[in-house]
Structures are given as structure tokens and as C-alpha cells.
């Protein structure tokens, strides 16, 4: 993991010393024609946020996976298993707004997330959360496998830079994941653990 941190520091140094970056077109929503593209399981690789409370939470996060499952045309189930010393599982029904292929999710607690352009087999969520008086901006990158190739990490860092977000917190990809099982990772459990938004 030392390598990861080194790469991050190096990249940021490179970014700040280089000629002004071309930010135009760097951060844009992804057009998703096939809904099945986002369904299934994703592993969190890194996250950046401008909100101190979230930054502190991210420091304690050891691993995290999420899973999107279809529910209705306009809703999806988000199952999550994340580790912060112990494992925590959540299951949430979210509104899914499809604006000509641009997908926006409405999470609990006044968070909306839009799917952005990123590396292949990756999922990038641009999240805005209302926390009382604060509006928190976060940028979470997930992938189908637990690896983030250097070139994609560079691309993600460039996007953060262009958005004016601070450097990300990387998830240690060697850390154990919370177990995934039928019992707490299936849409049938929503009535027990989830909350309906619609
Ligand atoms: C979004 O809607 C378009 C039609 O406007 C459709 O072709 C596409 O499959 C939908 N995408 C998702 C992810 O549901
Ligand atoms: C559900 O989505 C469809 C298109 O995907 C849209 O026409 C409809 O208005 C949506 N319904 C609600 C309640 O948002
Ligand atoms: C979400 O927004 C509504 C108003 O739209 C507000 O009443 C509620 O307290 C907010 N919830 C949180 C967790 O900020
Ligand atoms: C999910 O599964 C794990 C491991 O099998 C179990 O320890 C945990 O209690 C379950 N959590 C919920 C919310 O059902």
C-alpha cells in the first residue's frame, strides 16, 4: 500500500507543478444505455470529499462494497457492506432518475449521486449531501475488482483537481471485506433493513 500512497503524492506533485491542466470535458456524466451496466457488486477504491466530517469517517473505513439491484423502473436497491472496525450492512431503496441515460440516485439523508464518466469497469459517483447547513461534495470511485491501475488513478486525481476537491482517501485494497451473503445482500431483505424513499 505504500506504493499507492507514493503514487498519490507523486501525482499531486506532478499536477501542481505542471502547466495548467486541461479541465474541459474532464468531469462529465456518463450516458448509460444499458441499465444492467450498473447493477451488481462494486468495491470502493477511493473517495474524496470537501466535508471534514466525511473525511474523518473515511479515515476509519477499512473496506466497502456496494451492490445495486433493480427493483422497479424508477427505484433500485442499494446494499452495502462496510468495515469500520466491525462490519455494518445497510439496504436502502433509492429513487433512480434517468435523464436520457444520465443516472442520478437519491439516497437517504438528502444525498444525490450522479454516475460520471470514468475508467472501464469502474463506477464514479458525484455525490452532493445536505448536512444541515452544509452542502458536502464527494467523489467516490468504485470498480468491479479491487484494483485501481495507475493511469486510472491519475485520471481520477485529475478530476478531483478540476473539481477543486481535496486529495482522496484510498481504501487499503488488501483489507478484508465484510462477508457478502444472501441474508443481508438481497433485495428481499429491504422491508427489514431498508427505508423506502418512494
Ligand atoms: C434511460 O432511458 C433511456 C431512454 O431515454 C433508455 O434507452 C436507457 O436504457 C435508460 N437507461 C437506464 C440505465 O435505465
Ligand atoms: C419513471 O421512469 C419513467 C421512465 O423511465 C418516467 O417516464 C416516469 O415519469 C417515472 N416515474 C416517476 C414516478 O418518476
Ligand atoms: C432533508 O431535507 C428535508 C427538506 O427537504 C429536511 O426536512 C430534512 O431534515 C433533511 N434531512 C437531512 C438528514 O438533512
Ligand atoms: C449479515 O451477515 C453477516 C455474516 O453472515 C452476519 O454476521 C450479520 O449479522 C448479517 N447482518 C444483517 C443485518 O443481517
UniProtKB/TrEMBL annotation:
UniProt KW Signal keyword: yes
InterPro entries assigned: Calycin, Lipocln_cytosolic_FA-bd_dom
The entry's keywords: Glycoprotein, Secreted, Signal
Protein location: Secreted
One Pfam family recorded for the sequence: Lipocalin
Lipocalin/cytosolic fatty-acid binding domain sequence ranges: 40-175
A GO CC term attached to the entry: extracellular region
SUPFAM superfamilies named among the record's database cross-references: Lipocalins
Signal sequence interval, chain numbering: 1-18
UniProt key word Glycoprotein: yes
PANTHER family: ALPHA-1-ACID GLYCOPROTEIN (PTHR11967), ALPHA-1-ACID GLYCOPROTEIN 1 (PTHR11967:SF2)
Protein name: Lipocalin/cytosolic fatty-acid binding domain-containing protein
Lineage: Eukaryota, Metazoa, Chordata, Craniata, Vertebrata
Amino acid at each position: 500500500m505504500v506504493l499507492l500512497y507514493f503514487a498519490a503524492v507523486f501525482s499531486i506533485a506532478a499536477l501542481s507543478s505542471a502547466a495548467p491542466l486541461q479541465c474541459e470535458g474532464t468531469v462529465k456524466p456518463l450516458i448509460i444505455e444499458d441499465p444492467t451496466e450498473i447493477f451488481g457488486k462494486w468495491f470502493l477504491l477511493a473517495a474524496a470529499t470537501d466535508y471534514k466530517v466525511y473525511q474523518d469517517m473515511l479515515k476509519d473505513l477499512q473496506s466497502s462494497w456496494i451492490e445495486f439491484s433493480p427493483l422497479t423502473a424508477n427505484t433500485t436497491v442499494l446494499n452495502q457492506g462496510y468495515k469500520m472496525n466491525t462490519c455494518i450492512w445497510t439496504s436502502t431503496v433509492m429513487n433512480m432518475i434517468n435523464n436520457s441515460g444520465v443516472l442520478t440516485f437519491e439516497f437517504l439523508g438528502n444525498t444525490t449521486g450522479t454516475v460520471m464518466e470514468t475508467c472501464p469497469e469502474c463506477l464514479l459517483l458525484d455525490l452532493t449531501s445536505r448536512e444541515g447547513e452544509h452542502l458536502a461534495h464527494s467523489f467516490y470511485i468504485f470498480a468491479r475488482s479491487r484494483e485501481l491501475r495507475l493511469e486510472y488513478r491519475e485520471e481520477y486525481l485529475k478530476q478531483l483537481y478540476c473539481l477543486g476537491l481535496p486529495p482522496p482517501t484510498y481504501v487499503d485494497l488488501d483489507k478484508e471485506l465484510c462477508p457478502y451473503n444472501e441474508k443481508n445482500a438481497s433485495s428481499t431483505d429491504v422491508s427489514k433493513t431498508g427505508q423506502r424513499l418512494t
